[in-house]
Prior knowledge:
Layout: H1 20-39, H2 44-48, H3 59-77, H4 92-95, H5 101-123, E1 131-132, E2 137-138, H6 139-165
Helix pairs in contact: 1-6, 3-5, 3-6
Amino acid sequence: MWADPDEDPRENAGGTPDGELATLLDFLANYRLTLRMKCEGLDAEQLARRSVPPSTMSLLGLVRHLVEVERDWRNWVTVGDPVPKLYGEKDADFDGAVADPAEVDAAFAALEREQAATDAALAEHQDLGERVGRERVAVRELMVHRIEEYARHCGHADLLRECVDGRVGQ
């Protein structure tokens, strides 16, 4: 197993959360933690290793991609000028995922920063039915989309990690 069930930080010893918003936030937190766990213990070369040609997907690329996704979600919440892409145009998040320890550190720092910023923007909207931003997206839809995005990429991370060192997900 990936993590000993008795030591898995994703296990909720206190039971399930109360309420829809708390449940959504719990699922999101667990998928975010799962992604980090899939990357733990790997060096920069392993994190930047591409899957199967011609794909440019790597664990580091996924982290950088989720940085961009968090920034984009924040744009959905606000009505002001959108925050620009951090890594550039289409696929730059994956293409720029190079085996450099400084790049790895920067990517994880950026992910933490962008997650916190998006969380803060959404914390102002506790009503899941409220419509926000220029597109008038329901907060509930945005929350579910966030969970779906992390869940899909955690599946990718399972396969990428298995290619690196044979460890499989649970």
